[in-house]
Amino acid sequence: MHWSDVVAQRLAERGPTHIVSTGITPSGEFHIGHLREILTGDMIAKAARKAGLDVEFVFIVDSADPLRKVYSFLDDSYAQYIGHQLKQIPPPNQDGTPDMDRFAEGVSYADHFLEPFKQALEQIDVRPRFIDNYDSYASGKFSETARIACNNAANIREIIERVSGRELSEGWFPWNPIDANGSIDGIHVTGWNDPIVSWTDSEGNHGTSDVTKGEGKLPWRIDWPAKWAWIGVTMEPFGKDHGAAGGSYDTGKEIVQLFSKDAPVDLTYEWISLRGQGAMSSSSGNTIGPLEALSLVPPEILRYLVASTKPNKAIEFDTGMGLVNLADEFERTTLRDFSIEMQKEGLSRRQLVAIEDAKTALELSLISPHEETASVTFRHLAMLAQTKSRDDDVWRSLNMNEPIAQSMKDRLHRMRTWVQSQHFPEELRITILQQPNPHAIDLLDEDNMTLLPPLIQSLQACDWETASIQAAISNTAKGLEMSPRHAYRALYLCIMGTERGPRLPTILTELEQGEILKLLNACVQAKQES
RNA sequence: GGGCCUGUAGCUCAGUCAGGUAGAGCGUCGGGCUUUUAACCCGAUGGUCGCGGGUUCGAACCCCGUCGGGCCCGCCA
What we know:
This protein has 24 helices and 13 strands. The chain is mostly helical and 530 residues long. A three-stranded parallel sheet has the order 1-2-3. The structure holds one RNA strand of 77 nucleotides.
């Protein structure tokens, strides 16, 4: 059974109605790691609906969280906002300085980072109900839970200290009020008189905070179960950081009982890292944003990456050859006929499960409605995108007639972007040598050498267009009673330094005839001298 | 210190929760397609399932131990 169906089954055992929740703090640039959180939730919601359950999928934007520190992409002037809630501070400009103009127009720090992520979500067909955590506090959604928490401060302290094993400070209180400057750091709670918290801030100011009006927030370990309670969350996937023993899920599980609710069904997922570069981290700049990823890859492929990998498996996102292999695997999967495969006699249980999982992973990956398009592998499209500068030529080569499906146009456009990017693997890059490649010269065999001189002659004599070039190559080989294969190998080695390559005549027509002949002659000479 | 994940073919992984003769894709090699779309088709190659014990008629799978890799437990998914 596919992992999403396993979770759906667990939900079905609990009841017919569910709210699957995900959430992210918009403290910086979103990256594809965050996509795993939301895609995991989205897929579970879909699986649960398939199982006949009534499911809502929500995405909580943790905009009430404070700015923790001045991240590397921020200007030092952000130091004044440390401890301030992300919804209450200005967005950064390109250079990292606060953009007061946009802030005046109502765009907050949180909005700034959330907006592109929302666009990415639309592209990958994830449509949750968004819940803004800051607004939720302000509109009193946390009133009940906050009051209960404050009235049970000792109780909660005991839970956190016992379960997490860490010691809370003397002045700890389950509510972080906002001080005179708007910060929730360095503030001390001095009294609690339901629903008012009294406090003293670092500068010695005194004040009060009404917990039912969102004049502050609950600390994370309480904030989370409080959200479960007021929203009615019954399922939530979360990163392994929260899943560790004694982590926030463990304490939340007990705290939520105080709110007279049960903890949601959990699913801990592993992180996504960039191949060879470790975990993704907004602060180190070691990231690939969802939009950047989507500029290279069709959304189906990103969905497929998550759908076909079990949540507890770490994913290494590889923007090079790994991506090509992933995309080609997806392409092959779309071509499979699962109903025929499953009817096959004598399938072992394992084989059946493998077929079912592949089928489900594919279903979860497709963006609905799925356009029927001709199948083209990534490799092939990569080649066409490099050798044909006009889109029309690509369609002709693929035997596609107008009107071309929009999804195909998108794919080609993405491929062109990818080819131009630093991520495109050298292995697939078509390069034309300027001078003989010594390594390739070594690989030229006797047959190749026999063919080269007459090849050069006929290439010199022929019209420089595809049909003649093609005829020249194969006729030369046949004239010597050899397979054209040898002629092509010789040309690939001389011109591109590889033993094989994409259809040569079309590439040659885009190059200077004289340059090519010069290169070929140089190769023959180099070989003879060696 | 506590905990989680992970180790299976050259590579990426499935199979471990219901023990029953080692799987897939890619790669590599060979052949085909009488023009080579890095395509496509056919075939072959390839693994002491990290290591050591135990349970069992039977273990990649269950139990114990051990070694290696990654990671979490200060609000980074």
